[in-house]
Every structure is written in structure tokens, then in C-alpha cells.
Amino acid sequence: MLRNRHFFILDALLLPLAAYLSFVLRLDRFDIGAYWDSWVLFSLVAVVITILVFRALNLYARLWRYASVDELLLLAGAVTISVIAASTVTAIIAWLLPVVGLYPRSIPFIFLLLALGATAVPRLFVRLWIRYQMMNNGNGALRRPVLIMGAGDAGAMIVREMQQNPHLGLKAVGLLDDDPHKHGVAIHGVPVLGGREEIPELVGRLKIKQVIIAMPTAPGKVIREVVALCDKAAVATKIMPGIYEIIDGSVSINQLRDIDIEDLLRREPVRTDTQAMQAALRGKRVLVTGSGGSIGSELCRQILRCQPAELILLGHGENSIFEIYHELRRWQVPGTTIRPIIADIRFAGRIEAVLTQTRPQVVFHAAAHKHVPLMEMNPAEAVTNNIIGTRNVLAAAQAVGVERFVMVSTDKAVNPTSIMGASKRVAELLVHQAAARTGLPYVAVRFGNVLGSRGSVVLTFKKQIAAGGPVTVTSPEMTRYFMTIPEAVQLVLQASVLGHGGEVFVLDMGEPVKIIDLARDIIELSGLQVGRDIDIQIIGSRPGEKLYEELFVKGESYQRTSHEKIFIAGNASSLVPYQLDEAVDGLESSAMRNDRLAIVRGFRGLIPEYSPMDDTAPPSGSASPDHAAKPEQNGKLLHTAMTKQSLASSSY
């Protein structure tokens, strides 16, 4: 391969030749006669100045085997500067030394074009030669032919990486795209052969061994259809991660993986106001409770990209905090200090001491017990952790003047039928109360189930499949809203900058998904068939579970925000009961005695819409008895309203 010292020599030889040809083309003869002295002077000046400019712009320090459009543009700019400077210097010398004759004024313009060719062609030759060797090396016959679904930026980058790295053993023989305007064109020499419907025919005709889905922004519906066509053609499939997993927008073949359930449920990416998020967090001291959990750890990852002055990782489990701390330290974000703290939010004195020492300006409260059946069996833990822990963090935040507080809540807090849901609803009320007292943006963000989180139904199904089944579903009518962890966290961060205080933000989670359909998809993605390899068994609802989840509490007035995927209940703080502090003290006392019945009575007195599955009799002064029969109907009506593009303010 030519080295850069060889380019130096070639430039010194070819530039005088380019200058000579400039005179030849201008004079229309090879004998330039009286212009020999002008050619010698112009050539010497052009060579010296061009080499100096190239060295100043580091053009001799580049690996031209990896040259791209950026390098060519830089080269063109450098040559243009050199020609202008050389023409000016030559004219000055000719004026000072009359013995040197002047040359035609068109010479520099002709020389510019020839000099571009003289410097660019050798460098492009190296790039083309390396590519030729890669595409025609001895392992070419062993490379597996693949189709790439998606002829956009991601597909183009995958093609290029395959061409540059033949050791990967993959050869792109065609691209597919549903945009008919791309059909028939070529990307990096690889033709676009049609749309997704061509997959079965092309797999057979071209002996395709693998289809790569390179559509990081495609919704789950499209992914499902492509996967179905690949299954029909009996061809292996890989996929690029979704856009929420590729936060920085980079794409690499190392990111290819098998199709997962998250891909089939993927929705179109939503716009986020990254500038507003970064402005709210850059240079600030930010504390995240529950930093070791699924949501908390992803919050930390995305907050770190906003370059806070300090990121404080607070959690109770030392192993999870250890893992996220060392993961984030590897990022080496300039100007950001990462501080891990092991603490239990149930201990008020400890939390107050931590916040007094760290003085956070922004707090994201993600620490909570979330497992519905476990909290039904351990109600005291739900009270002490989800309610008393939240009260402790809020009290410490107010004491040290935290500017912004965001609590991660759940759709199970709406018309709760479980201990966990009721505890999160009380925690929301505490946040609203703190917002009213301080006048600061203390808000709650409510969303549904998160794919891939600890205890997720997806992980449960995968474990059951690995054990040979059966896959257990509580009810064939059970539906849930689902989001991916990065998607949910991005919207939590977005909602945090929209709050003024006392609001509940609700994330639009799209269409609810039937759990039994989710089970079928996971079984099929595992290469198995329902009924033949793995059975689905209906086992009945567990304690505290509802068939349908809801998103707004009765009395909350909701409307769209400036973000199309975030709704707001602006009057949430007006629903805080006057006896909240006394009721929370009573719940704490009941939890200390481990008195389940007293805890349930406390919840029912504080949350009229709370309807525990094991005791449906309404307490005195509560809503009418038929309210417990409404959640499913109200959930469907609410979802219909939320999916409209234009949503007027109304009450629920």
C-alpha cells in the first residue's frame, strides 16, 4: 500500500506536470516557447505552497484507504487555497523581477482542475484498490449471501461494513425497501431489488442464508410482517436494535441480534426535545433513587449524556449499584462526577443526611417495590418502602431546596385493586402535596409495564419456555400497556422539563397488548410452536390483578401537552385529601404492627376508588358500589380518547 511519504513525492512530481499541461491546453501546443520561465516559477511556487498547505491540514497524516467524501472535500479545499496563494505569489514575483514573463490569466483556473486530479487520483486509487482486494479476496466463496431489509442510512452502513470487513463472512447481494423510488438503484454497488414481498422469491433464487432487518425506526407492525415473510421463506433473521437502543445514532454490524419481542412491539420513535432536557440537567447535581433497578439504571445512563456536574446513584442493593457505577465510569464524561451511595429510603435520618451532604438540584425518585403479588403478601413492605420512603425523600428534598423532583409512578395507581397500586397512589398524593407547599416542579410520571425489567412477564415466559413449559397466562382477556425501558425513560426525562408542579404526566403507550398474544409471539420467536412444543395454560387472575389497566384517576382533568406522547392531569394536586399526613402516619403505624387489615382500611379511607380483590364492599362515604365494575370499560374509552390526534380537555 502507498504510504503518505509516497504521496508527498507524487505531489512534488505531478503538480509541475499539471502546471505544464495547463500551459499546453491554454496555448494549444506542446512547445510553450517564451513561457518556460513562467512555468518554472509557477511550478516551484505551486509545489512549495501546496505541500505546506497539505501539511498544515494534516493531509499527509491520513489513511486514504478509509477515505470518504469528507476527505475529498478537504483535499479540494486545500488545492483551491494552494492555487490562489501560488497565483498571487507568482504575480508578485513577476512584478518585482521583470525578467520573468507573465503568463495568461486563465492558467490558474486550468491548473486548479488539473491539480485536483493530480492529487486526488492517486489517493482514490488506494481506496479503490483496497476495496477491490476486500471484495475479491480468497475467502469470497465462503462468504454467506445475505439480504438487507432497509435501504436507508442503517442499511447502507451495514453494506459498507461488510465490504470493508470480509472476515465477517457475510456478503450483501441485495437490499430491499418498501419505497418504490429506491428500487433499481445501487448503494455501495449493491442493488435495491424491491420491497419486502420479494423476500420469499429472492431467498430461493439467490440462495440467501440470512436476512438482516436494518430499520431502527420501523414500528413493530412492519417488523412483524417482515419476520412472517422470513419465516415463510425459512431463512435466518437478524435485526438492528431500535432507535431507542441506538441513542447516539451509530450503527454497527456488531449490534446485530436475533429478533426479540421488543422488536415486534416496537412503535414509531417519538421526537424528544433534547435541548430542553440537556438545559435542565447540564451542570446540575442530579440524584436518582433506585439507581440499580431497571428504570433507575437507564435513567442514569440517559442523564449522564446530558453532562450533569454530579450524578448521585442512590440504592439499597450494593451489587446493582456496584454494576451501574462501574458501567457509567467507563463512559468518562468530562466534567461529571459519579457518586455511588448505599442507603435505604425508609430511614429518614439517613436520607436527610445524604441529601444534606450531596445537595442535589434535581431528584428522580425511581426506588419502589413493584411486584403486585409479592406486595399483596407483604403489605407492610409496600407501605414502608413506597409510601414512607417517598415521604422521606420528599422531606429531605424540601429541606435542602431541590429545584425539581420527578417520581416514577405506575398505571396500577389508577383505581387500584392491589396493595402495590394503592401504595403508589398515596406516593403520588405526597408528591402533589409537596408541590403545593413549595410551588416547585414536583411531579409524577405514570406509565405501564416495561419490557425487559426485572420481573417482567417477558422474562417469566422465557424461563418457562426454557424449562419446557407450560407458559402460564392468568386470563385470555388480560391486556397490558408495554414500553421499552429506553423509550419510557426518554419520555420520563421529557416530562420532567414540562412540569410546573403538582401535575401527573401520563405516557401514551399506544395500543394495549393481550398477554396471551404476547405468550404466542415469544414461543414462536423461540423457534417453537404453540400446542406442539409448548402449551399455554390459563391459571386465573392473581391477587390484586385487573384485566385492564387504566391511566387516569376519576376527577383528574387530562389533556395533551406540547409533546404528542405525553398527557397531563393538571389538576392532580387539587385531589390531595386534607387528612393525608394523618392517614400516612396511620398507615405507617399499621405497617410497623404488620396489620394487613388495618393497612387495607387505611388505604380505603384515603383512596375511595381502591377496590381490593378480596374485599369489594365499599367503605362509607366512598364512590358507588358499581364503580368497581367500571375500570375495564373506562380503560377502553380512555384509550380511544387518547389515540385521537386532537384531544380537548375533559374530566375522567
Describe the protein in words.
The chain has 652 residues and is an alpha/beta fold. It is built from 21 helices and 22 strands. It folds into three domains: 4-135, no CATH class; 140-264, 3-Layer(aba) Sandwich (Rossmann fold); 289-451 and 491-514 and 548-651, NAD(P)-binding Rossmann-like Domain (Rossmann fold, 3-Layer(aba) Sandwich), CATH 3.40.50. Helix 1 runs antiparallel to helix 2 (36-56), helix 3 (69-96) runs antiparallel to helix 4 (107-135) and helix 19 (580-592) packs antiparallel against helix 20 (596-606). The longest helix has 29 residues, at 107-135. Mean pLDDT is 79; it is low at 616-652.
The structural class is alpha/beta
Rg estimate, integer Å: 33 Å
Q: Low-confidence spans: pLDDT under 50, at least 5 residues?
A: 616-652
Q: How would you name the CATH homologous superfamily of the largest domain? A: NAD(P)-binding Rossmann-like Domain
> What is the name of the CATH topology of the largest domain?
Rossmann fold
What is the mean pLDDT?
Answer: 79
As laid out across the biggest beta sheet, the strand order is 9-8-7-10-11-12-17-21-20-22
The appropriate CATH architecture of the largest domain is 3-Layer(aba) Sandwich
> Any idea how many domains?
3
Strand content: 5-15%
Major beta sheet, specifics? 10 strands, mixed
Q: What's the N-to-C terminus distance? A: 72 Å
Number of H/I helices: 21
Annotation, overall tally of beta strands:
22
Proportion of residues in helical segments: 40-55%
Overall geometry: elongated
CATH level-1 class of the largest domain: Alpha Beta
